[in-house]
Every structure is written in C-alpha cells, then in structure tokens.
Amino acid sequence: MSEVEQSKYIDITTDYGFKKVFGADTNKDLLIAFLNELFRGRKVIADLYYNKNEHVGDTEDIGTVIFDLTCTADNGERFIIEVQRTAQVNLKKRMLYYSSKLIADQAPKGNRRAWNYAISEVYIIVLMDGFTMPDAGVEKYFLHDICLCYRDDGKIFHEDLGFIYIELVNFVKAEAELVNDLDRWLYILKNMSSLKGLSRYLRKPIFEKLFQLAEYSKLKPEEREMYNVSLRNKWDAESIRSSQEELLKRAREKAMAEGKAEGKAEVIKKLLSLNKFSILDIAELANVTVEFVEQVEAETAKEK
Q1: Which is nearest to 104 in space by CA: 90, 92, 119?
Q2: Which residues in 265-281 are b (16+ Cβ under 10 Å) and which e?
C-alpha cells in the first residue's frame, strides 16, 4: 500500500484498528465513553476490567474481535459486557451462545445452594460493519436494543440480559446532522478512514484523543504492517460477502421465477380443463410461450 493511497487515519472497524482503539487498558476511557453512549443513560460505567476470555480466537471466522469486560457502574453495581466486531454467520444464535456462556461461567464449582443464582447482568454488544441485521425487516434502524420481554404487551420480563446490535450500514447521517455523542461515535466508526481531520462537529477531548491515536503516520513500522494486513483482510471479507449476497440474490430470483411458473401452470391447467380456448389463446392469457402451455398439457395428460 503506497503512501498516496493511505488515508490519514486508520479504519477502526478493522481487527487491528478496533483492538488499538478499544482493546488497550491505557485507552479504556474511549471504550467507557462509547459504551455509556450505547446504554443511553440506562447504565453509567465508571470503570472496566478486561477479562481473559476463553473463546477469544476460538472461532472459525476470520475478522472476529471479542472483548470480555467486567464493568463497574457509578452506583457500584458490577456487570459483564462482551463487545464483538464480528462476521454475520449465524449471528443471533452465536450471540445467544456467548451470552449463555457468560452466564454459566459465573456458577461456582460447588455450594450452588448458597450461591442462589446470584448472576451478574450480562450484555452482548455487536458492531456490525458492512452487513445488515438478519431478518430485521424493512425498517432501517442503526441501533437494535434488545431484552427479554412479554410477547403480548412488550413489558420487560428480565432486565439483566441484553443485546445491542449496531448496524453501521443504516447510519447515514452527515456531520452537520449529528445531534449527540452516540451519533458522533457511530459517524466516526463508519467514516474514520475517509476523514481529513477533526471538524467542529467532533471537537471534544475524547474524540481528540481518538483521532490522535488513529493517525496512520504515528504507527510504528510493525504496526503499519499489522494494520495493512488487517485492512486487506477486511477488503477480502467484504468481497466474499458481496459475492455471497449476489449468489443469494440470484437464487431468490430463480426461486421466485420458478414459483411464478408453478402458479401459471395451475392457471393453464384450469383453462385447459374448460375446453374453450386454443393453445395460442391460453399462452396469451397466461403471458407464457406456446411451448410452455404444450408442456403443461402433456404433463397433465400423463397425470390422468
């Protein structure tokens, strides 16, 4: 990668960029600030600790970063957060598995009766870069804040397990449209590598630190190499995902076409049974070829 092609700031949605900004204890103020915006006042994190997570790196997917955090709120409460920058394969089931593991790992080896299932709150936060929420519907939400609730009235059933999915592809605000720090964080996450500097819309101490940390020119040679490899991996993953989406689109179109053909075949059978129309008339009425009508007629004759 030449210097001409290199942007001023690194892409912080790459594995390397994400770890550099959010994965170091010296920069945990950045992660705390980001998480507090995601909770939108429901939680206020005062401090956090990076746990040694057993399943970090124990995944078949390239492009997965996992932080297992023990957080302390401003009121002294302690809870667990897992932050992921992850691929999309089996996304919902995987997050359910990880949350279940974080819960199960809290159980003591013995004397569970005395423990009485004193489970800490668990939250899974997923940064989705370049792909959409599975089965999200037509709404273009960029933040999905999910908890366990009653199906009938939406009343919360259990507050202590939650999932926050950040769908960056749906965040389309321009700089002048940013109204709060959550907007600013998501704008930076999505656009960092294309920015030329810190604009007046982002002029805050926490973002000044972030921009200084993310300057490509300040990386050591070995850091640049790691970042460039990480960036190429991201591009490769996006290319593969794009190819997969195109194949899936074609498969859907083929299935729809086949479904329409099956529907028209039923219409043609009914018209044939009336014995009132010629093959040419039926072809015109059903908007198909004469050959297709003849094929349906032949198959119908075989079934009798």
Answers
A1: 119
A2: beebeebbeeeeeeeee
pLDDT in tens, the chain (304 residues): 444 467 999 999 999 999 999 999 999 999 999 999 999 999 999 999 999 764 444 444 545 678 899 999 999 999 999 998 866 667 888 899 989 999 998 998 877 788 888 899 999 999 988 888 877 777 889 999 999 999 999 999 998 999 999 999 999 999 999 999 999 999 999 999 999 999 999 999 999 999 999 999 999 999 999 999 999 988 887 887 777 667 656 755 665 566 666 678 888 888 888 877 788 878 877 778 888 889 999 988 888 6
Tokens describing residue 151: 């199906």
Helix axes 15-22, 205-213, angle to 10 degrees: 130
Buried b / exposed e over 98-127, threshold 16 CB at 10 Å, is: bbeebbeeeeeeeeeeeeeeebebbbbbbb
